Amino acid sequence: MSIKYLVCDWASAVFAWTLFFVFRKAVIEGDGLRDALAFYRDINFWYGVAVVPLSWLVLYFMQGAYRNVLHKSRLKELQQTALATIAGVIVLFFALILDDEIRNYRNYYVSFLFLLAVHFAITYAIRLAITSNTVHRVHSRQIGFPTIMIGAGRLAYKTYLDLEHQETYSGERFVGYVSVGDGEKDPNMKLVMPDLGTIAGLRRLVEEHNVEEVIIAVEDNTRDQIAVIVQTANECGDLTIRITPDARDLIIGSIKLNSIFHSPLITINNRLMEEWQYSVKRMFDIVASLFAMIILSPVYLVTALIIKCTSRGPVFYAQERIGYRGKPFKMHKFRSMYIDAEANGPALAKDDDPRITPFGRFMRKVRLDEIPQFYNVLKGTMSIVGPRPERQYYIDQIVKRSPEYLLLQRVKPGITSWGQVKYGYAENVDEMLERMRYDLLYLENMSLATDVKIMLYTVLIILQGRGK
Fold first, then answer.
1. Strand order of the sheet with strand 172-179?
2. Predicted local confidence at residue 338, as pLDDT
3. Do residues 163 and 264 make contact, with C-beta atoms less than 8 angstroms apart?
4. Residue 140: predicted pLDDT
5. 145-269: what fold?
6. What is the pLDDT of residue 335?
7. What value, to the nearest 5°, has the Cα angle with vertex 422 and ends 227 and 388?
8. What's the alpha-carbon Rg for the chain, to the nearest Å?
9. Residue 174 has what pLDDT?
């Protein structure tokens, strides 16, 4: 379905550009309609056909227009198309059209409005047709979203009945249910969908059944597990997570009410920023990492030589950390400790730690040991700004005391973070918990502007050598 939107958007952009080119030739430049129809002989037209539609697709992709296309509404489609058209036409106008030779400035406004109106009308008309057809197919039960019910009691069964008997079908196709804890099960659940086991196997079930939605309908006696249940669902991928209203006050994060006939559910918003901000953040990560690795290449070389000459062992140190959605990855650093520093088991570094080499102490002060992580950022396992990743050994200890730590896994870990800026390296679990408070605060205020502030403070700390 995403491919259908993409192809139609490309065709719309080509058609709109063609009409605009003919309009410019016939009306603005005054060549007349007959001469203007010979646009195919103008090399600028073909340059536009090659570049302009692709630019529109990039803009739509950054906007998130091709995510969850089966869940689109016509009103949201109107809003998305209007905003993208205004932004795109402004950029296009200043990049390609503003330096054209014209008879008077009024023609600039006419050209701008013509391109805006034509591009929006064509693009939205085709999108509206596709979205309307999709909505019709969902409501008529021709297509649906593979869904798992989390819960096996009376509330789960009631939620199922409400969804199945609503006047307008909303698309949930239940592949089965999973139980939570030792609560009482409603025997009717087995009559309407398969019993898939417990929530412990949720990740496997999501992959096996290509699940797109989970609906959490747990009984009162398992309310205290809601945060863990939501985090477990989050770790399973980019799912739509809905929950019965009774537990809304237990959810940490941004939520919105979804009006479903007979059964209003809360949709948990897992996107902490607008889709375009995620796209810009990732693009910045790629460009900044490439730039840093090239510019800092002499620093890499000199640092590697000093490490090699001052202590025995490898230059780089790779350690398994837990990243986005709880997935493990190898994080790379310049080695700042003597080899076999953890021969007796995992241990956090301290200010006067004898395991740290003299040069390693300097590297940690100015964050020099962290710069190999630009490679992790380039791979996509990390971001430049995000909560610092920890090892599973310490995560297990932290979660016992503060389960909300798992919320940090909703975003990619980073080279620097609000917690790293405000607190620095942690020497024990208590300090990890203290630093976690700042990183949770980052989640609540996550934006491109916040990332910029954190990066500026990080540079200041490096220049002042105040790294802890």
1. 195-198, 172-179, 145-150, 213-216, 240-243, 265-269, 254-258
2. 87
3. no
4. 86
5. Rossmann fold (3.40.50)
6. 92
7. 50
8. 27
9. 94
Provide the pLDDT for residue 261. Answer: 44
- Residue 125: CA atoms inside 13 Å, Cβ hemisphere, count? 11
CA atoms of 295 and 383, how far apart (whole Å): 19
Question: Which amino acid, 312?
Answer: R
Pairing of strands 240-243, 265-269: antiparallel
Nearest to 211 by CA among 147, 138, 143: 147
* Residue 356 contacts residue 364 (beta carbons within 8 Å): yes
How far is 24 from 45, CA to CA, in rounded Å?
A: 11
- Taking each continuous run of H as one helix and of E as one strand, the counts in the chain are 17, 11
What lies within 8 Å, CB to CB, of 377 at 6+ separation is 285, 286, 288, 289, 383, 384, 415
**What is the DSSP pairing of strand 213-216 with strand 195-198?**
unpaired
**What are the start and end residues of each CATH 3.40.50.720 domain in the chain?**
145-269
- What single DSSP character describes residue 306? H
Q: Under a CB-based contact definition with an 8 Å cutoff, are residues 77 and 126 in contact?
A: no
User: Position of tokens 């990390």?
Assistant: 382
- Cβ atoms of residues 404 and 252 within 8 Å: yes
The answer to whether 386 touches 414, Cβ cutoff 8 Å, is yes
Sign of the four-CA dihedral 182, 183, 186, 192: negative
Relative to beta strand 195-198, strand 172-179 is parallel
Pick out the chain residues at pLDDT < 70: 1, 28-40, 97-105, 182, 220-224, 245-264, 269-270, 343, 351, 465-468
Q: Which two tokens stand for residue 265?
A: 């559910």
Among the listed residues 423, 406, 411, 432, the one whose alpha carbon sits nearest the alpha carbon of residue 457: 423
pLDDT at residue 380 in the model: 94
CB 338 within 8 A of CB 357: yes
Strands 265-269 and 254-258: antiparallel
User: 413 and 442 in contact (C-beta within 8 Å)?
Assistant: no
**CB atoms inside a 10 Å sphere around CB 362:** 16
Distance CA 379, CA 286 (A): 9
Provide the pairing of β-strand 172-179 with 383-385.
Answer: unpaired
User: Could you give the CA distance from residue 468 to residue 461 in angstroms, rounded to a whole number?
Assistant: 10
Q: Please state the separation of Cα 73 from the chain's center in Å.
A: 21
Q: How far apart are CA 255 and CA 226, in angstroms?
A: 14
Between CA 1 and CA 75 the distance in angstroms is: 19
User: Is there a contact between 152 and 181 (Cβ–Cβ < 8 Å)?
Assistant: no
